[in-house]
Amino acid sequence: MTRPPQGGQAGPPALPEDVAGWHRLHPLSPLVRAGRHLVTIGVLVLGLLFANQNQAGGDLVVDLVIVAAVLIAGVVSWLVTRWQVADGVLRIETGLIRRDSRRFPLSQVQAIDVVQTGLARVLGLAELRLRTAGDSAGGRLACLRLPDAERLRERLLSMAGASAAATAGGPAPATAAVGPDRPGPVPGGAPEPERLLFRVDSARLAGAIVLSRAGAVAAIVIAAMASVVALTGQPGTIAPFLPVGFGIVLAVWRQFNGEYGTVVATAPDGLRLRSGLVQTTAETIRPGRVQAVRLVEPLAWRVFGWCRLEVDVAGPRQRRENRAESQRLRALIPVGSRPDAEHMIGELLGTRRQPSRRAPRRAAWKAPLLYRFLAWDLDDRHVAATRGRVCRKTTWVPLEKVQSIRWVQGPVQRRLGLATVRLDVAGKRVSASIQDRDAAEAGAIMATLPDLTRDARTVRRLRRGPAVSGLASES
Amino acid sequence: MAVAEPGRTAGTVDAGIRWQRPSPRLLLARRIQVGLVTGPAAIGGGLVAGVAGSAALGLGIGLALLVTGLLWERFLARRVAAWGYAERSDDLMVRRGVLIRRQSVIPYGRMQFIDVTAGPVERSLGLATVRMHTAAAASDARIPGLEQAEAAKLRDQLAALGEARAAGL
After folding, report:
1. Contacts A455 to B, Cβ<8 Å
2. Which positions in chain A have a beta carbon within 8 angstroms of at least one beta carbon in chain B?
3. pLDDT band (50, 70, 90) for residue A408
4. Between A and B, how many CB-CB pairs are < 8 A?
5. Domain of B91: which CATH number?
6. Residue A365 pLDDT more than 50?
7. Domains in chain B, number
8. Which of A55, A128, A248, B7 could be cross-linked to B78 through a Cys-Cys bond (beta carbons 3.0 to 4.6 Å apart)?
9. In terms of Cα–Cα distance, which of A76, A94, A97, A177 is closest to A137?
10. How many CB atoms lie within 10 A of CB B115?
11. What's residue A466's pLDDT?
12. Share of residues in chain A with pLDDT > 70 (%)
């Protein structure tokens, strides 16, 4: 799809018929959506059969009824769901009794993911997820045919870029969202060129997960169960704990499944992430939507020189089926070497600077474990801060993304003449903490940082181009 | 509204900022709130202990609870005095806390929405709390105990400033 060079002042460029009209989802989507529940129910049924073989018959009927109900509900939900893209807005209507019509202005979209669950993959379907800022869940289109989903994502992203540039106004033409040094979208919806930034090493990922906290817990639980069985000789004794063990193993598996084969590439429409073993996910993080970057180095990983690089994107992770996921950030590098991470940070932020201003010595009295890592630094576009007791965490926050600045001084800090400054970014997961600085320094930070963030915001508003993309293109 | 600041040493960050203070009636409101909690607690605790144990025990526990309430009240004055806010050209500063001191800077352009709330005690005294929300959940900008007229004025003022300086995410 070619974009008019003068910028779509009358909304997004003209759309082909096939997007502007109302559409249904793929007819097989109820099956895919119910698939998750079916797996759960299947496990339950097996568990019940295993637990009480005698009266399994009655339960089986009940379960079949539940399965049928789930499927019928899915079909009805499919029948009443339709979607449309018009005037730069994606509309999804659903609901049989309580009609629910939701509008997603594409200029507000933070990222678009294509997710394939295992069953969807077998059927060649995929789910499209829109992420918007704020606490409400984003839009889901489940399911479309995979090629359709990918084409739609590309189209939505290019429209989003166009409408964002149009609403931003100013002299910037729509193509500025793409950047002068990058090729624009190729006409005809052909795949756009992308540059590979990182590919995860599978063996290292497996090792890293075993060495992570979740992996260690799982290993201990499995070992404990195995030894109990071996010692008592009765497998029945651990039966009550099986669900717990199952849950822990499942969590580890999810992490491996989610991060397996992570590939990160830059493209004109943003940063593209693909990952997954059974359930594959393809995400596009739009330029300038990265709120913070975090480098995590757990103790066990530091021995091997491994680290994990995460980005925070505004908006919730709307995976209701696994809550644990929503607490974590998106890993650009699930596990990689320091040079990998530094290269990626350079790409993301245009800086490779590590925090170098250490905390004053007396901070060790207040935070003996924390002290060795405490540091911060500032350049003209970012603040970087390191903290962590065992696991070293370094956070980079672009100045233009800072939502508020807090200065905190507890009683012990007051005694020692220290203070902490925190920078909050959108969301609840990350804040850069410039911890335990000399009180005078903290005061100076507090006096200068608000002006610096204001200038960063102003600059950003003036040139809503690639400079704000978070993908350093001009530096 | 220059008021002496008890319990606050020459702050490192305070220099050159004109702090606005909540209404003096905030202290009264807080006292009433503490009284509403500790009064019934002391009477109830005393009665229960008096019935279950001896009268002396009941009296003792009731008095102990009352003394706790009074100590709490002593602390209240300093906490109320610690509240302050300053409208600067581009951002709002809010400070609070005695033991743990906090100062927040919230740029006007970052405000997502503004709440004005008033609980029953606050309402009966004609007070209200103004609270600013940003996209960050951790942002902490609350100004309690404003006169209701002043709260409404502040709300409108902040909303206008936020509108003028709005920045995207």
Report:
1. none
2. 110, 133-134, 289, 291, 314, 400-411, 414, 419, 422, 424-428, 431, 439-440, 442-443, 446-447, 449-451, 453-454, 457, 460-461
3. very high
4. 104
5. 2.30.29
6. yes
7. 2
8. B7
9. A94
10. 12
11. 41
12. 76
Is B18 a domain residue? no
A289 token code pair: 């939507």
For A367, B18, B103, the CA distances from B86, given in Å and listed in that order, are 32, 6, 11
| Same domain, yes or no: A160 and A209 | no
Q: Alpha-carbon distance A174 to A268, whole Å?
A: 13
Cβ partners under 8 Å of residue A440, min gap 6: B12
Kindly report, residue by residue over A135-154, the tens digit of the pLDDT. 556 678 878 888 888 888 88
Look at residue B108 and give its three-state secondary structure.
helix
Residue B36 lies in domain: 25-79
Residue of B nearest to A453 (CA): B107
CB contact under 8 A, B100 and A419: no
Distance CA A282, CA A327 (A): 19
CB contact under 8 A, A411 and B169: no
Contact A272, A265 (CB under 8 A): yes
Q: What is the pLDDT of residues A272-307, one digit of tens each?
A: 888 888 777 888 887 777 888 889 998 888 888 899
Q: Tokens at residue B84, please?
A: 């302050």
Residues of A in contact with B108 (CB under 8 A): none
C-beta atoms of B167 and A453 within 8 A: no
Secondary structure (3-state) at B37:
helix
Residues of A in contact with B109 (CB under 8 A): 454, 457
Does residue A217 share a domain with residue A75?
no
Per the model's pLDDT, the better-predicted residue between B137 and A424 turns out to be: A424
Which amino acid type is present at position A438? D
Give pLDDT tens digits for A334-348: 898 988 888 888 888
Domain that holds residue A72: 17-112+143-178
Taking the C-alpha atoms of residue A398 and residue A457, their distance in angstroms, rounded to an integer, is 10
User: What average pLDDT does this structure show over A222-238?
Assistant: 80
**Predicted ipTM of the assembly:** 0.82
Identify all chain B residues contacting A133, using CB atoms and an 8 Å cutoff. 135, 169
- C-beta atoms of B169 and A133 within 8 A: yes
Nearest chain B residue to A289, by CA: B169
CB-CB: which of A404, A422, A439 is closest to B106?
A404
Q: Which of B100, B104, B107 sits opposite A453 (nearest CB)?
A: B107
Beta bridge partners, A91, equal A84, A103
Buried-state track A334-369, b at ≥16 Cβ within 10 A, e below 16: bbbeeebbbbbbebbbbbeeebeeebbeebbebbee
Mean pLDDT over residues B97-113, rounded? Answer: 88
Q: What is the pLDDT of residue B85?
A: 92
